[in-house]
Design a protein that fits this description.
362 residues; alpha/beta; TIM Barrel; binds (3S,4R)-3-hydroxy-2-oxopiperidin-4-yl beta-D-xylopyranoside
Length: 362
């Protein structure tokens, strides 16, 4: 009894002392005695959530930034299970002179992807932008251009054969009305250039999936009708094409209605084609506020949901990873903040929206 009383009094004294002492302790605790702050479990990386449902979540990557920035490298490797070559495999960078290729950046991207167990989408073989001046100014005859393009495709696709799971073979061949655009390839070779390019790519890597890729053809409109007709024509003539890439560069105030995107994906799927969201970013313009970031997150969520629900869509690629290296500010002259991580590599609500959407089981 006495002992219990003694212990109670002692406890009381100790507690009283510690309470009275606390406010008077002027010096901060040495760091080593500071208790660890409560651990916040980080959200699971996108790629592990994607992988569990057989989905590919990708980022466009340029070797220029990957080489220089280890934080960026870690971010890309942690979050994405797919990499699209943003610029390094385009005609100009990879084939700077008629007789010379430059594979340094492309090879380094493949190495990075392999080291981090990421699939690669090759972008792009035939486009009318980012072409070398020798090609644009060469005044080549039809036969010469055919030889140039065939040799280019065999060389580039052949080099990365087995390392690239899907190619954007032809990029942006149509105008807003859904007609073939006036490009060096249409002028020099004629409308057949598209079928030829798919054929040659298939010959160079029979296992790669081959995509036609375009922008502003996500919903139902004249352009997406044109894409539909184009790929149906290729399919009907036995040309090896596996899918259509819907780029999805959208603006907060001009988003293709999700219902239309779903309908477009469904009609392409009925042709036996896959669809992929290949270049998504959501421009915020000049105003980056909690509200605009929230709306951006909602758009990412809606369009990922459309893809997850579509029978033939298993890929969403964001056109970048951090706003620090996004192409948008240079394009529009505004902050835009179109991708999932901000200028300081901090996750935005859009990331959380994708994480939550991938976690949902439907
Ligand atoms: C962009 C790159 O992101 C920029 O770095 C480059 O300066 C221009 O091209 N549609 C496409 C992509 O198919 O190749 C473009 O990429 C963005 C629009």
């Amino acid at each position: 009894m006495k002992r219990t009383l003694f212990i109670t009094v002692l406890l009381f004294v100790v507690l009283a002392c510690s309470f009275t002492q606390l406010p008077t302790a002027p010096t901060p605790f040495p760091t080593s005695t500071v208790p660890p702050s409560p651990t916040v479990t980080p959200a699971p990386p996108l790629r592990s959530l994607a992988a569990t449902r057989g989905f590919w979540i990708g980022s466009a990557v340029s070797y220029e930034y990957l080489r220089a920035d280890s934080t960026y490298r870690d971010l890309v490797a942690r979050e994405f299970n797919l990499l699209t070559t943003e610029n390094d495999l385009k005609f100009g960078p990879i084939h700077p002179e008629l007789e010379r290729y430059d594979f340094e950046a492309g090879d380094a991207l493949m190495e990075f992807a392999q080291a981090n167990d990421m699939a690669v989408r090759g972008h792009t073989l035939v486009w009318d932008w980012q072409n070398p001046s020798w090609l644009m100014e060469g005044n080549y005859s039809r036969d010469e251009l055919i030889n140039i393009l065939r040799e280019h495709i065999y060389t580039v696709v052949g080099r990365y054969r087995g390392q690239i799971s899907a190619w954007d073979v032809v990029n942006e061949a149509l105008d807003p009305q859904g007609n073939l655009r006036d490009t060096i390839w249409l002028r020099g070779i004629g409308p057949d250039y598209i079928a030829l390019a798919f054929q040659w790519t298939h010959e160079a890597d029979p296992d790669a999936k081959l995509f036609y890729n375009d922008q502003a053809a996500e919903g139902m409109n004249a352009k997406s009708d044109g894409v539909y007709e184009l790929v149906k024509g290729l399919r009907d003539s036995g040309i090896p094409i596996d899918g259509v890439g819907l780029q999805m560069h959208v603006d907060l105030n001009a988003v293709p209605p999700p219902g239309e995107v779903a309908a477009n994906m469904a009609r392409l799927g009925e042709l036996g084609l896959e669809v992929a969201i290949t270049e998504m970013d959501v421009r915020l313009g000049p105003e980056i506020t909690p509200e605009t970031l929230q709306r951006q997150a909602e758009i990412y969520r809606e369009l990922l949901s459309v893809c997850l629900r579509a029978e033939k869509c298993n890929t969403l690629v964001v056109w970048g990873a951090t706003d620090a290296y996004s192409w948008l500010p240079e394009l529009t002259g505004m902050p835009d903040a179109g991708v999932l991580f901000d200028l300081h590599y901090q996750p935005k609500p859009a990331l959380e929206a994708l994480v939550k959407t991938l976690m949902l089981t439907e």
